[in-house]
Amino acid sequence: MWVLIGDSEDVGMGLVINEAKTKFQSSLRVCRAPRINGVPITRVPTYKYLGVQISHKKCVQTVTHVRDICLPRLAPLRVLANSGRGVGIPILRMFYISVIRSLIDYAAIVLVQFSMTQLRPLELIQNEAMRIILGCPRTAKIEVLRAELDMPSIVFRIQEIACRATSRLLCSGAPSFKQNLTYLHHNPRYPVTPFVKKIVSLLRSVGIMEECLGVITSPRQPTWRPHRVSVDIEKLTQRKSEWIPQVLRNHFLLKLSQYSHRQVIHIYCDGSVDGSKSGCGVLIRDYTTPDQYTDTEVTRRLPHHLSSTRAELYAILQALHTVIALNKDVYIFVDSQAALYELLSTSPCDCDLVNKCFVAIDGLEQSGARVQFVWIPSHVGIKFNERADFLARQALQDDTVDPGAEYTLGYIRNKIKTYVSNTITDQLEHCCIIGSTSSRHYVDIIHNSHHTYGRHSALYDVTAMRLRLGYKYYWEVSGSPAVSCTLCHQPRGHSLKH
Predict the structure, then answer these.
(1) Which of 193, 236, 425, 481 is the most exposed place for a label (fewest CB within 10 A)?
(2) What are the tens digits of pLDDT across the range 218-230?
(3) Which residues of 57-81 are buried (b: 16+ CB within 10 A; e: fewer)?
Protein backbone atom coordinates (compact mmCIF):
# COMPACT_ATOMS: atom_id res chain seq x y z
CA MET A 1 0.00 0.00 0.00
CA TRP A 2 1.36 3.42 -0.90
CA VAL A 3 0.05 6.95 -0.44
CA LEU A 4 0.79 10.04 -2.51
CA ILE A 5 1.30 13.29 -0.63
CA GLY A 6 1.87 16.61 -2.29
CA ASP A 7 0.51 19.75 -3.90
CA SER A 8 -2.10 20.22 -6.60
CA GLU A 9 -4.27 22.82 -8.30
CA ASP A 10 -7.88 22.72 -9.46
CA VAL A 11 -8.20 23.23 -13.21
CA GLY A 12 -11.78 23.20 -14.42
CA MET A 13 -13.32 19.97 -13.19
CA GLY A 14 -10.01 18.10 -12.96
CA LEU A 15 -7.04 17.92 -10.64
CA VAL A 16 -3.50 18.77 -11.76
CA ILE A 17 -0.69 17.28 -9.67
CA ASN A 18 2.56 19.12 -9.12
CA GLU A 19 5.11 16.33 -9.68
CA ALA A 20 8.01 18.31 -8.19
CA LYS A 21 6.27 18.71 -4.82
CA THR A 22 4.70 15.25 -4.71
CA LYS A 23 6.27 12.42 -2.68
CA PHE A 24 5.04 8.98 -1.76
CA GLN A 25 5.16 6.76 1.32
CA SER A 26 4.74 3.01 1.44
CA SER A 27 4.30 0.46 4.18
CA LEU A 28 6.01 -2.19 2.00
CA ARG A 29 9.72 -2.85 2.20
CA VAL A 30 10.02 -3.13 -1.59
CA CYS A 31 7.78 -0.93 -3.63
CA ARG A 32 8.26 0.34 -7.18
CA ALA A 33 8.10 4.12 -7.34
CA PRO A 34 5.01 5.41 -9.15
CA ARG A 35 5.33 7.72 -12.13
CA ILE A 36 3.07 10.65 -12.93
CA ASN A 37 3.24 12.14 -16.43
CA GLY A 38 6.46 10.20 -16.88
CA VAL A 39 8.08 11.75 -13.79
CA PRO A 40 9.19 9.29 -11.05
CA ILE A 41 7.93 10.19 -7.57
CA THR A 42 10.46 10.15 -4.74
CA ARG A 43 9.84 7.87 -1.75
CA VAL A 44 10.23 9.49 1.70
CA PRO A 45 9.88 8.06 5.23
CA THR A 46 8.40 11.33 6.56
CA TYR A 47 6.84 14.33 4.87
CA LYS A 48 6.03 17.79 6.17
CA TYR A 49 2.48 18.51 5.03
CA LEU A 50 0.93 21.84 6.06
CA GLY A 51 3.44 22.14 8.89
CA VAL A 52 2.93 18.61 10.29
CA GLN A 53 5.30 15.66 9.92
CA ILE A 54 3.38 12.68 8.47
CA SER A 55 4.67 9.11 8.47
CA HIS A 56 3.35 5.54 8.26
CA LYS A 57 5.00 4.76 11.58
CA LYS A 58 5.35 6.70 14.79
CA CYS A 59 8.29 9.00 14.29
CA VAL A 60 9.62 11.05 17.20
CA GLN A 61 10.64 13.63 14.64
CA THR A 62 6.99 14.74 14.57
CA VAL A 63 7.10 15.72 18.26
CA THR A 64 10.55 17.28 17.85
CA HIS A 65 9.35 19.37 14.91
CA VAL A 66 6.44 20.83 16.91
CA ARG A 67 8.69 21.43 19.91
CA ASP A 68 11.25 23.30 17.82
CA ILE A 69 8.53 25.62 16.51
CA CYS A 70 7.03 26.30 19.94
CA LEU A 71 10.26 26.92 21.89
CA PRO A 72 11.26 30.25 20.27
CA ARG A 73 7.78 31.65 20.99
CA LEU A 74 8.37 31.51 24.74
CA ALA A 75 10.74 34.50 24.36
CA PRO A 76 8.02 37.06 23.46
CA LEU A 77 5.88 35.62 26.26
CA ARG A 78 8.68 36.42 28.72
CA VAL A 79 8.95 39.94 27.31
CA LEU A 80 5.22 40.52 27.77
CA ALA A 81 5.32 39.17 31.33
CA ASN A 82 8.38 41.28 32.27
CA SER A 83 8.81 39.46 35.60
CA GLY A 84 5.32 40.36 36.80
CA ARG A 85 5.50 44.01 35.75
CA GLY A 86 4.17 43.60 32.22
CA VAL A 87 0.70 42.84 30.89
CA GLY A 88 -1.85 41.04 33.03
CA ILE A 89 -2.33 37.31 33.50
CA PRO A 90 -5.42 37.05 31.21
CA ILE A 91 -3.51 38.58 28.27
CA LEU A 92 -0.51 36.31 28.85
CA ARG A 93 -2.79 33.27 28.97
CA MET A 94 -4.51 34.33 25.74
CA PHE A 95 -1.13 34.88 24.05
CA TYR A 96 0.05 31.39 25.01
CA ILE A 97 -3.15 29.73 23.80
CA SER A 98 -3.30 31.58 20.48
CA VAL A 99 0.42 31.71 19.60
CA ILE A 100 2.02 28.64 21.21
CA ARG A 101 -0.55 26.01 22.12
CA SER A 102 -2.37 26.52 18.82
CA LEU A 103 0.61 24.87 17.07
CA ILE A 104 0.14 21.77 19.22
CA ASP A 105 -3.62 21.83 18.64
CA TYR A 106 -3.05 21.96 14.90
CA ALA A 107 -0.94 18.79 14.97
CA ALA A 108 -3.08 17.02 17.58
CA ILE A 109 -4.53 14.45 15.16
CA VAL A 110 -1.01 13.22 14.37
CA LEU A 111 0.30 13.59 17.93
CA VAL A 112 -2.50 11.49 19.44
CA GLN A 113 -0.69 8.28 18.50
CA PHE A 114 2.25 9.08 20.81
CA SER A 115 2.50 8.05 24.47
CA MET A 116 2.70 10.36 27.46
CA THR A 117 6.47 9.85 27.68
CA GLN A 118 6.99 10.72 24.03
CA LEU A 119 4.90 13.89 24.43
CA ARG A 120 6.93 14.98 27.45
CA PRO A 121 8.89 17.68 25.50
CA LEU A 122 5.61 19.44 24.63
CA GLU A 123 4.42 19.11 28.24
CA LEU A 124 7.59 20.84 29.44
CA ILE A 125 6.91 23.76 27.10
CA GLN A 126 3.46 24.30 28.62
CA ASN A 127 4.87 23.97 32.15
CA GLU A 128 7.41 26.70 31.43
CA ALA A 129 4.73 28.89 29.84
CA MET A 130 2.52 28.57 32.94
CA ARG A 131 5.44 29.59 35.18
CA ILE A 132 6.04 32.63 32.99
CA ILE A 133 2.36 33.61 33.00
CA LEU A 134 2.01 33.36 36.78
CA GLY A 135 5.58 34.32 37.64
CA CYS A 136 6.10 31.18 39.71
CA PRO A 137 9.38 29.50 40.69
CA ARG A 138 10.33 26.13 39.23
CA THR A 139 9.33 24.48 42.52
CA ALA A 140 5.69 25.34 41.87
CA LYS A 141 3.28 22.42 41.74
CA ILE A 142 2.26 21.94 38.12
CA GLU A 143 -1.18 20.59 39.07
CA VAL A 144 -1.89 23.80 40.99
CA LEU A 145 -0.85 25.95 38.03
CA ARG A 146 -3.16 23.99 35.72
CA ALA A 147 -6.07 24.48 38.09
CA GLU A 148 -5.37 28.21 38.46
CA LEU A 149 -5.14 28.81 34.69
CA ASP A 150 -7.77 26.18 33.79
CA MET A 151 -5.41 24.44 31.38
CA PRO A 152 -5.40 20.65 30.95
CA SER A 153 -2.15 18.83 30.36
CA ILE A 154 -0.95 18.57 26.77
CA VAL A 155 -1.81 14.86 26.66
CA PHE A 156 -5.45 15.47 27.60
CA ARG A 157 -5.65 18.51 25.32
CA ILE A 158 -4.53 16.37 22.38
CA GLN A 159 -7.05 13.70 23.35
CA GLU A 160 -9.80 16.32 23.51
CA ILE A 161 -9.09 17.59 20.00
CA ALA A 162 -8.81 14.07 18.58
CA CYS A 163 -12.16 13.09 20.12
CA ARG A 164 -13.84 16.26 18.85
CA ALA A 165 -12.47 15.68 15.35
CA THR A 166 -13.61 12.04 15.37
CA SER A 167 -17.12 12.89 16.52
CA ARG A 168 -17.39 15.68 13.95
CA LEU A 169 -16.24 13.31 11.20
CA LEU A 170 -18.81 10.69 12.21
CA CYS A 171 -21.56 13.30 12.48
CA SER A 172 -20.89 14.75 9.02
CA GLY A 173 -20.97 11.27 7.49
CA ALA A 174 -18.07 8.82 7.19
CA PRO A 175 -19.58 5.34 6.67
CA SER A 176 -16.34 3.41 6.12
CA PHE A 177 -14.63 4.96 9.14
CA LYS A 178 -17.70 4.34 11.31
CA GLN A 179 -17.87 0.74 10.08
CA ASN A 180 -14.25 0.12 11.06
CA LEU A 181 -14.83 1.62 14.51
CA THR A 182 -17.95 -0.51 15.00
CA TYR A 183 -16.25 -3.75 13.95
CA LEU A 184 -13.21 -3.07 16.12
CA HIS A 185 -15.41 -2.13 19.09
CA HIS A 186 -17.21 -5.48 18.98
CA ASN A 187 -14.24 -7.54 17.76
CA PRO A 188 -10.85 -6.43 19.14
CA ARG A 189 -9.06 -8.69 16.62
CA TYR A 190 -10.62 -6.99 13.60
CA PRO A 191 -7.77 -6.05 11.20
CA VAL A 192 -7.46 -2.27 11.06
CA THR A 193 -4.60 0.21 11.09
CA PRO A 194 -2.87 1.06 14.40
CA PHE A 195 -4.23 4.60 14.15
CA VAL A 196 -7.85 3.38 14.17
CA LYS A 197 -7.05 1.11 17.13
CA LYS A 198 -5.65 4.11 18.95
CA ILE A 199 -8.79 6.12 18.24
CA VAL A 200 -11.03 3.32 19.56
CA SER A 201 -8.91 3.02 22.71
CA LEU A 202 -9.12 6.79 23.18
CA LEU A 203 -12.91 6.92 22.75
CA ARG A 204 -13.28 4.16 25.33
CA SER A 205 -11.03 5.91 27.86
CA VAL A 206 -12.97 9.16 27.48
CA GLY A 207 -16.25 7.24 27.74
CA ILE A 208 -17.88 8.35 24.48
CA MET A 209 -17.57 5.20 22.38
CA GLU A 210 -21.29 4.38 22.33
CA GLU A 211 -22.18 8.04 21.77
CA CYS A 212 -19.87 8.36 18.76
CA LEU A 213 -21.19 5.18 17.17
CA GLY A 214 -24.78 6.37 17.71
CA VAL A 215 -24.29 10.06 16.87
CA ILE A 216 -26.88 11.58 14.57
CA THR A 217 -25.54 11.85 11.03
CA SER A 218 -26.00 15.46 9.98
CA PRO A 219 -24.33 16.31 6.64
CA ARG A 220 -23.87 20.01 6.07
CA GLN A 221 -25.89 21.99 3.58
CA PRO A 222 -24.11 22.99 0.37
CA THR A 223 -23.12 26.62 0.89
CA TRP A 224 -23.70 27.34 -2.79
CA ARG A 225 -27.38 26.35 -2.54
CA PRO A 226 -28.67 27.76 0.76
CA HIS A 227 -32.38 27.49 1.48
CA ARG A 228 -34.00 30.87 1.98
CA VAL A 229 -36.54 31.23 4.76
CA SER A 230 -38.41 34.35 5.82
CA VAL A 231 -37.38 35.28 9.35
CA ASP A 232 -38.28 38.52 11.12
CA ILE A 233 -36.02 39.21 14.12
CA GLU A 234 -36.61 42.73 15.41
CA LYS A 235 -33.54 44.38 16.89
CA LEU A 236 -34.32 45.95 20.26
CA THR A 237 -32.92 49.39 21.01
CA GLN A 238 -31.57 48.07 24.32
CA ARG A 239 -31.06 44.75 26.02
CA LYS A 240 -34.18 42.80 26.90
CA SER A 241 -33.33 42.85 30.62
CA GLU A 242 -33.42 46.67 30.53
CA TRP A 243 -36.99 46.80 29.20
CA ILE A 244 -40.06 47.02 31.40
CA PRO A 245 -41.95 43.75 30.66
CA GLN A 246 -45.30 45.51 30.19
CA VAL A 247 -43.81 47.96 27.67
CA LEU A 248 -42.15 45.17 25.71
CA ARG A 249 -45.33 43.09 25.77
CA ASN A 250 -47.50 45.98 24.48
CA HIS A 251 -45.00 46.69 21.72
CA PHE A 252 -45.07 43.11 20.41
CA LEU A 253 -48.84 42.72 20.88
CA LEU A 254 -49.26 45.72 18.58
CA LYS A 255 -46.92 44.06 16.11
CA LEU A 256 -48.79 40.73 16.26
CA SER A 257 -52.12 42.47 15.63
CA GLN A 258 -50.83 43.66 12.25
CA TYR A 259 -50.51 40.10 10.89
CA SER A 260 -53.44 38.70 8.96
CA HIS A 261 -56.11 36.82 10.92
CA ARG A 262 -58.13 35.52 7.96
CA GLN A 263 -57.51 32.11 6.37
CA VAL A 264 -54.09 31.83 8.01
CA ILE A 265 -52.48 29.79 10.76
CA HIS A 266 -50.69 31.29 13.76
CA ILE A 267 -48.30 28.96 15.60
CA TYR A 268 -46.53 29.52 18.91
CA CYS A 269 -43.63 27.13 19.63
CA ASP A 270 -41.50 26.61 22.69
CA GLY A 271 -39.01 24.06 24.00
CA SER A 272 -38.14 23.27 27.59
CA VAL A 273 -35.09 21.61 29.14
CA ASP A 274 -34.77 20.58 32.78
CA GLY A 275 -31.58 18.69 33.51
CA SER A 276 -31.50 15.70 31.21
CA LYS A 277 -35.24 15.95 30.42
CA SER A 278 -36.55 17.91 27.45
CA GLY A 279 -39.88 18.54 25.81
CA CYS A 280 -41.67 20.88 23.43
CA GLY A 281 -45.07 22.51 23.27
CA VAL A 282 -47.00 23.94 20.30
CA LEU A 283 -50.14 26.08 20.19
CA ILE A 284 -51.79 26.20 16.73
CA ARG A 285 -54.60 28.64 16.00
CA ASP A 286 -56.27 28.04 12.60
CA TYR A 287 -58.13 31.21 11.61
CA THR A 288 -61.11 31.14 9.28
CA THR A 289 -62.07 34.71 10.19
CA PRO A 290 -60.72 36.89 12.98
CA ASP A 291 -63.59 35.69 15.18
CA GLN A 292 -63.71 32.05 14.01
CA TYR A 293 -60.76 29.82 14.71
CA THR A 294 -59.76 26.38 15.93
CA ASP A 295 -57.08 25.80 18.54
CA THR A 296 -54.83 22.75 18.62
CA GLU A 297 -52.35 22.04 21.39
CA VAL A 298 -49.44 19.61 21.01
CA THR A 299 -47.07 18.41 23.70
CA ARG A 300 -44.20 16.03 23.04
CA ARG A 301 -41.60 14.50 25.28
CA LEU A 302 -38.21 14.66 23.56
CA PRO A 303 -35.07 12.52 23.91
CA HIS A 304 -32.70 13.06 26.81
CA HIS A 305 -29.74 15.43 26.87
CA LEU A 306 -30.93 17.98 24.30
CA SER A 307 -29.92 21.61 24.16
CA SER A 308 -32.61 24.27 24.46
CA THR A 309 -32.02 25.28 20.82
CA ARG A 310 -32.55 21.72 19.61
CA ALA A 311 -35.75 21.47 21.68
CA GLU A 312 -37.00 24.67 19.99
CA LEU A 313 -36.22 23.22 16.55
CA TYR A 314 -38.16 20.07 17.47
CA ALA A 315 -41.13 22.28 18.35
CA ILE A 316 -40.90 24.05 14.97
CA LEU A 317 -40.67 20.72 13.14
CA GLN A 318 -43.64 19.33 15.07
CA ALA A 319 -45.69 22.41 14.16
CA LEU A 320 -44.81 22.20 10.47
CA HIS A 321 -45.75 18.51 10.30
CA THR A 322 -49.09 19.29 11.95
CA VAL A 323 -50.15 22.03 9.50
CA ILE A 324 -48.51 20.81 6.28
CA ALA A 325 -51.80 19.38 4.94
CA LEU A 326 -53.87 22.53 5.60
CA ASN A 327 -52.40 24.54 2.67
CA LYS A 328 -52.65 27.94 4.38
CA ASP A 329 -50.20 30.73 5.02
CA VAL A 330 -48.36 30.09 8.27
CA TYR A 331 -46.90 32.53 10.79
CA ILE A 332 -44.67 30.83 13.33
CA PHE A 333 -43.85 32.85 16.47
CA VAL A 334 -40.71 31.67 18.27
CA ASP A 335 -39.01 33.17 21.35
CA SER A 336 -35.59 31.62 20.61
CA GLN A 337 -33.32 33.70 18.41
CA ALA A 338 -30.76 30.87 18.41
CA ALA A 339 -33.26 28.53 16.72
CA LEU A 340 -34.17 31.13 14.11
CA TYR A 341 -30.52 31.86 13.34
CA GLU A 342 -30.03 28.10 12.89
CA LEU A 343 -32.63 28.25 10.09
CA LEU A 344 -30.72 31.13 8.49
CA SER A 345 -27.27 29.58 8.84
CA THR A 346 -25.59 27.81 5.92
CA SER A 347 -23.83 25.44 8.34
CA PRO A 348 -26.09 24.99 11.38
CA CYS A 349 -25.06 22.84 14.32
CA ASP A 350 -28.34 20.88 14.26
CA CYS A 351 -28.33 20.44 10.50
CA ASP A 352 -30.42 17.25 10.59
CA LEU A 353 -33.42 19.02 12.18
CA VAL A 354 -32.94 22.13 10.04
CA ASN A 355 -33.00 20.01 6.86
CA LYS A 356 -36.21 18.31 8.02
CA CYS A 357 -37.76 21.72 8.64
CA PHE A 358 -36.75 22.78 5.12
CA VAL A 359 -38.45 19.71 3.64
CA ALA A 360 -41.69 20.59 5.44
CA ILE A 361 -41.41 24.25 4.41
CA ASP A 362 -40.86 23.21 0.78
CA GLY A 363 -44.03 21.08 0.97
CA LEU A 364 -46.05 24.07 2.15
CA GLU A 365 -44.56 26.47 -0.38
CA GLN A 366 -45.13 24.10 -3.29
CA SER A 367 -48.85 24.08 -2.42
CA GLY A 368 -48.90 27.88 -2.68
CA ALA A 369 -48.69 28.65 1.04
CA ARG A 370 -46.25 31.08 2.60
CA VAL A 371 -44.24 30.42 5.78
CA GLN A 372 -42.83 33.24 7.88
CA PHE A 373 -40.98 33.05 11.21
CA VAL A 374 -41.27 35.89 13.72
CA TRP A 375 -39.26 36.37 16.89
CA ILE A 376 -41.13 37.38 20.04
CA PRO A 377 -39.66 37.94 23.53
CA SER A 378 -40.23 35.30 26.18
CA HIS A 379 -41.72 35.72 29.66
CA VAL A 380 -43.16 39.21 29.13
CA GLY A 381 -46.81 38.19 29.35
CA ILE A 382 -47.70 37.38 25.72
CA LYS A 383 -50.65 35.05 26.31
CA PHE A 384 -50.19 32.48 23.55
CA ASN A 385 -46.43 32.25 24.02
CA GLU A 386 -46.91 31.67 27.74
CA ARG A 387 -49.35 28.89 26.89
CA ALA A 388 -46.78 27.25 24.59
CA ASP A 389 -44.22 27.51 27.39
CA PHE A 390 -46.67 25.80 29.77
CA LEU A 391 -47.25 22.98 27.26
CA ALA A 392 -43.48 22.48 26.88
CA ARG A 393 -43.00 22.26 30.66
CA GLN A 394 -45.99 19.91 30.88
CA ALA A 395 -44.29 17.58 28.38
CA LEU A 396 -41.44 17.09 30.87
CA GLN A 397 -43.87 15.39 33.25
CA ASP A 398 -44.76 12.72 30.69
CA ASP A 399 -42.94 9.62 31.94
CA THR A 400 -45.07 7.13 30.03
CA VAL A 401 -43.00 7.50 26.87
CA ASP A 402 -39.23 7.67 27.30
CA PRO A 403 -37.53 8.00 23.92
CA GLY A 404 -34.09 7.40 25.43
CA ALA A 405 -31.02 9.41 24.57
CA GLU A 406 -30.29 11.19 21.31
CA TYR A 407 -26.57 11.58 20.79
CA THR A 408 -25.88 14.86 19.04
CA LEU A 409 -22.55 16.45 18.24
CA GLY A 410 -23.18 19.12 20.88
CA TYR A 411 -23.88 16.49 23.54
CA ILE A 412 -20.65 14.62 22.75
CA ARG A 413 -18.64 17.85 22.81
CA ASN A 414 -20.02 18.74 26.24
CA LYS A 415 -19.15 15.29 27.53
CA ILE A 416 -15.58 15.60 26.20
CA LYS A 417 -15.25 19.04 27.77
CA THR A 418 -16.48 17.71 31.12
CA TYR A 419 -14.01 14.82 30.97
CA VAL A 420 -11.05 17.12 30.29
CA SER A 421 -12.14 19.55 32.99
CA ASN A 422 -12.41 16.70 35.50
CA THR A 423 -8.83 15.64 34.75
CA ILE A 424 -7.60 18.98 36.15
CA THR A 425 -9.59 18.51 39.35
CA ASP A 426 -8.63 14.84 39.71
CA GLN A 427 -4.92 15.59 39.40
CA LEU A 428 -5.18 18.33 42.03
CA GLU A 429 -7.07 16.03 44.40
CA HIS A 430 -4.43 13.32 43.92
CA CYS A 431 -1.72 15.78 44.99
CA CYS A 432 -3.71 16.57 48.13
CA ILE A 433 -4.09 12.87 48.93
CA ILE A 434 -0.35 12.20 48.68
CA GLY A 435 0.31 15.08 51.09
CA SER A 436 1.23 18.12 48.99
CA THR A 437 1.13 21.17 51.30
CA SER A 438 0.80 23.74 48.52
CA SER A 439 -2.04 21.76 46.89
CA ARG A 440 -3.97 21.57 50.15
CA HIS A 441 -3.45 25.28 50.73
CA TYR A 442 -4.72 26.08 47.22
CA VAL A 443 -7.80 23.88 47.64
CA ASP A 444 -8.63 25.61 50.93
CA ILE A 445 -8.22 29.03 49.33
CA ILE A 446 -10.41 28.38 46.29
CA HIS A 447 -13.15 26.96 48.51
CA ASN A 448 -13.20 30.06 50.72
CA SER A 449 -12.40 32.91 48.33
CA HIS A 450 -12.66 33.87 44.69
CA HIS A 451 -10.52 36.16 42.56
CA THR A 452 -10.96 37.18 38.92
CA TYR A 453 -7.80 38.28 37.13
CA GLY A 454 -7.87 41.35 34.94
CA ARG A 455 -10.13 43.58 37.04
CA HIS A 456 -7.23 45.30 38.80
CA SER A 457 -3.66 46.18 37.92
CA ALA A 458 -1.15 43.51 36.89
CA LEU A 459 0.79 44.03 40.13
CA TYR A 460 -2.35 43.49 42.19
CA ASP A 461 -3.11 40.26 40.30
CA VAL A 462 0.45 38.98 40.81
CA THR A 463 0.23 39.61 44.55
CA ALA A 464 -3.17 37.95 44.80
CA MET A 465 -1.89 35.00 42.76
CA ARG A 466 1.08 34.45 45.11
CA LEU A 467 -1.25 34.46 48.09
CA ARG A 468 -3.63 32.02 46.40
CA LEU A 469 -0.84 29.65 45.37
CA GLY A 470 0.98 29.95 48.70
CA TYR A 471 4.44 31.18 47.70
CA LYS A 472 6.51 32.65 50.57
CA TYR A 473 8.71 35.64 49.95
CA TYR A 474 12.43 35.61 50.73
CA TRP A 475 12.05 37.96 53.68
CA GLU A 476 9.58 35.55 55.32
CA VAL A 477 12.11 32.72 55.55
CA SER A 478 15.29 34.77 56.04
CA GLY A 479 14.26 36.74 59.14
CA SER A 480 14.28 40.07 57.29
CA PRO A 481 12.24 43.00 58.68
CA ALA A 482 8.51 42.79 58.06
CA VAL A 483 7.21 44.20 54.81
CA SER A 484 3.67 45.52 54.50
CA CYS A 485 1.25 43.63 52.27
CA THR A 486 0.38 45.44 49.05
CA LEU A 487 -3.23 44.24 49.39
CA CYS A 488 -4.16 44.95 53.03
CA HIS A 489 -1.07 47.01 54.10
CA GLN A 490 -0.57 44.86 57.18
CA PRO A 491 2.96 43.83 58.28
CA ARG A 492 3.79 40.25 57.32
CA GLY A 493 0.44 40.09 55.56
CA HIS A 494 1.92 37.92 52.83
CA SER A 495 1.90 34.83 55.04
CA LEU A 496 -0.06 31.74 54.03
CA LYS A 497 -2.63 32.56 56.75
CA HIS A 498 -3.38 35.93 55.14
Answers:
(1) 481
(2) 776 655 455 678 8
(3) ebbeebbebbbeebeebbeebeebb
